[in-house]
# Entry
Amino acid sequence: MSYDLEQENKEISARYKDLISNTYRTLDEENNKLIRKAFDIALDAHKDQRRKSGEPYIYHPIAVAKIVATEIGLGASSIACALLHDVIEDSEYTYEDLKKIFGERIAGVVNGLTKISIMNHQNISVQSENYRKLLLTLSEDFRVILIKIADRLHNMRTLESMAPDKQKKIASETVYIYAPMAHRLGLYNIKSELEDLSLKYNNPDIFNEITEKLELAKESRIRYIDEFTKEVSERLKDEGLNVSIKGRAKAISSIYRKMLKQGVSFEEVFDNYAIRIIYKSDAKNEKFLAWKIYSIVTDVYHSNPSRMRDWITQPRSTGYESLHLTVLGPDKKWIEVQIRSERMDDIAEKGVAAHYKYKEGYKQSNDDRNFEKWVTEIRDVLEQQQNLTTSELLDNIKLNLYSKEVFVFTPKGEIKILPTNATALDFAFSVHSDLGMKCLGAKINGKLVPISYVLQNGDQVDILSSQNQKPKFDWLEFVVTSKAKSKIKSFLNSEKNSFVEEGKEILQRKLRHAKINFNDEEINKLQKFFNLKTSQELFLKFQTNELDASSLRKYIESKNVFNNLLSRFKRSSNKNQHYEEPKEINLDMIVFGKDEEKLNYSYAKCCTVIPGDKIFGFITISDGIKVHSDNCPNAINLRAQYDYRVIPAKWVNEESFKNRIKIEIEGLDRMGMINDITTVISGAMGMDMKSMSIESNNGIFTGNINLEVKHKGQLEETFKKLKAIDGISRIRRI
# Structure
């Protein structure tokens, strides 16, 4: 393919100028020089590279840098890191090179981004491990995460050029990992867009349906917002308030969640759009003006007290501040109204990155402290949970990403923010680890309650403790915070460490005897085979002799079956297949892979599969192939964590499938060979060729062809004609 290099160079230059002129922060000469230097290095590193779409690769780092600069609002160093984020991974530049040119800080961030990317190429439970890596790097420099989120956002925006299977895999990973992380960092716009784009590729029918309905309702929505604005803005002006009023449709993914949660149609979701009132204010009057606007709005329209949220008096742990109320607006329709200052709006849009713009003059809310506290918690959890499987770690930490919050008070009146459903024991651990370990019970508002008591907003909590108290296994059933869980598990594990080590040595010996490597991947497989949650459980069972040599033999037998399946269906990026379901009726059999193989399978219990549904196969370790619906609630997790075990599947008509056979063909490769073969099969013999795969190596080709045959005579005649083709040496039926 030929490219207009001159035109591309002009476009690169234009995109760079656009990046520089649209930064969220003012750049001085030094900053401009730094960004220019990073751009020149990136341009050189990627000069011969192109994306899947065919466009120059440098477009991608420029786009990521623009997201970092304008949508996240980071400064010059981060913009430089974004331009350089793929340089170490994709070129000959090393960490040491970047360290010499830009210094240790920038080189360190780029290196952190490279480590995360490298994880993507490893054939293990990739995304879960990726998540652990993300969290580890976060504790060092959270810019790594912000730039990685920007990178993922641009990849999602340009996902059309990828193969459909790859699209689903990336979309699943995005909604599983990156959207929650964006949410936790206060990047609500980016979080919504990531979720919307993931829905677009994971469930295109739903996405398109909601998009179309929002578009149809656009005119009436604009009319409604104009009427609201007209009535309210006059009152606000009379009071001398400087405000802007905006209306927006809610995110498609948010509307879809409401439809699922409430079991209603799109038309029945009553608040699928919101109004935002943004006001100018100095630091001193911010809170006063918010409540003044609230008072004016509720004078005009009746409010729903149960849906009132005050995030100004007590900001969310992300630093988010706003007043949320739901009012009965024009036409007697409920609508959400958000009231926030320009500063609050900036922080709501830019998340943690915007905090630093408002260090002077404005009150410092808890935003930075809350964020730092969260990072510290993450670090503590990682240190405490070294022995956990990554998926367990993931579950523990994800609890705190999306969870809503409850506000409670210490006996001295200090506010503590905890996830919804947190218990008195969670509170004890949040005060101090030692207090949690020795917790006996609590006094809530002066009344004695057990440690399992679920905290409510406004509770005053006083913890009762004893030196004789020790953590128990049942504590894990009612704590919800990662800190509490990790501390309890750490204590419980320390008591059985010696048994675990002994069991580990026993298993090591048995595996060595069976000539199987002792590594994390193998341990994970053993866990799943024996249906155990942790590696510790596995070692303990070998120590107690609940599992022995005969148990291990069963695993080895199943492992051979599993490996055979995996090797058959192992996919690479250039072999992604998109399965279109046939339109014919009487679909009663499932086939797998690009060669449409008939294999043993069973249906997964987590979803209901009906003939004709869009489906996929999942290779389990001990239970063969499980068939899932594309809409299965576990589909995203399976694709995100175990993509290499997902295989394409489709429905066929068993009657028509009975006459399908597979042939293998070998010969000398030459120009026009494939054309000669297809001419015989499809032309001369009029046969239906279902699939064909040809490989050539040093002038010799081998191929597999799936055919639909009417009778044996037709097959014999086809073989005769194929053997007559110049260069073909062997044909056989498989």
In short: The chain has six domains: 5-202, 212-360, 366-397+481-547, 404-479, 573-656, 659-733. Residues 121-127, 358-368, 572-576 have pLDDT under 50 and may be disordered. The first helix runs from residue 5 to 21.
